[in-house]
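User: Is it possible to get a 3D structure for a protein together with its bound compound? The compound here is histidyl-adenosine monophosphate. I've pasted both below.
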Amino acid sequence: MRRVLHAFNYREVQTPTFEEIELFLAKSGPGIREEIYDFKDKSGRELCLRPELTAPVMRFYFGSGLKVEPKPVKLFYFGPCYRYDRPQAGRYREFWQLGCELVGDDSPEGHAELLHLALGLFEEAGLKNYNLRVGHLSILRSLLEGLGFPPKEQSPLMRLIDKKETEPLGEALRAKVDARSADAFLKVFEYRTFDQLKQLSGSAQTQAAYAHLQRVWRRLEGFGVDLKKVQLDPTIARGLEYYTGLVFELDAPDLGAEKQLLGGGEYDLSSVFGESPVPAVGFALGFDRTLVALEKSGGLATTNQPVDAVVAALSEGGVAAAQRLGNRLRERDLCVELDLSAKGAKRSLGRASTLGARVIVLLGDQEVAKGQATLKNLASGEQVTVPESEVLRRLESWLQAVPVRA
Ligand code: HAM
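Assistant: Yes, that's possible. Here is the predicted structure of the complex:
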């Protein structure tokens, strides 16, 4: 995933695990307080373990030289987050997020490239079964406004929409509007195409959102994204309250209730830091859930890195030569296991086979006396004794003959 992020010119940043709680209370919404691990330090400061990294990364952005760099600025992060949730399958109190923030670009092209990147991360990881849903908050917000709910009354409704709790949502709507208008609003939950979306009220914001989404789709197509895996979903509300426009979520249908692997969207946190507006968009993926999804689909690559060579001293006399050779091979970035136990070839061969090493280099009294080493290719069984100066060449030619590192 890091490789993909570098290919898209994202730079990695790290921020502290704990922050002032105010940072999150400012814009993430009141719901976040219950989810936060908070505490006071010895000076009575109200701190917390970070529940997410967007606000910390933006704090870093505005507090560093990054904010005067030419835009867009592209940042990514990978680190632990903490939420005081009721733990269940796929929902942990400590979990890892990998995410990125694109600062200073609100174009459909920038958004499409970010979505393309999000999909690229899963493709690279080997996850095949997923679907991405993309929407735009202006659509919901302008519909709610049309029904007579001004922005400051929309939060509780947006929370119900986020959780897809359509029954309590219907009740909340009917408390203010007639049943027909409430039902018409609830119909949006069935909309999945641009044609359906077109039927919605022609408010200027809805039209702009519609045009923006259509451009994003065109650009996704240009990137070669498989549009069968991307769905229009005007009912994405997102749990955090800082989102402003484009929003998206990615699910792995193979997982149970906690199937959302990634979430993100457009936001602007500049006011939290007393700065003038800067558009930003980003996402975070739940790394733990991604691993579970990969495991379920059989796509989790082995985590054991292959051992290129075991370098074994067969006797006391071979120890110094084995150390020297080990150093040389490791300088070449080869993965080397040293066996300096000097307990004989049988034991060292047994260890090499347990490790699944590709080659073993044996250094006994005889070899050392002649300035030689014995190499055995553990895949083919071929064994040769060569001068020490030729060990590296022979080893590398054997390693190249088999696929080196997955
Ligand atoms: P979020 O949707 O709250 O967004 O979290 C992103 C992802 O983190 C979720 O889709 C999920 O996979 C994972 N996740 C969340 N809570 C848990 C948990 N308790 N256990 C395991 N995994 C979890 C954000 O955090 C935003 N900061 C994303 C963003 C970046 N928006 C803009 N930029």
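The two ends are 14 Å apart (CA to CA). Residues 164 and 362 are 65 Å apart (CA to CA).
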